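Need tokens for this chain, all 75 residues.
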Amino acid sequence: LLKGKRVGIVANQTSVIFKDKNRTHLVDSLLALQVNVVTVFSPEHGFRGQADAAEHVADGVDTKTGLPIISLHGK
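Here are the structure tokens for all 75 residues:
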């Protein structure tokens, strides 16, 4: 379904997959499956949950993946 597509994901720190007591973020899992994730759209608290409630979260780049992060909080 996603093969050959450019994919944008709406995700936050709760977008995880649990398997055998291991926790992997959805975006990290998709990248490992070679899905062409090109952008992450993030609601309040930031993509990986680094921001406090009501804190302004600017657009940026995820340090783990290098993907652009577009903040949806306050828009």
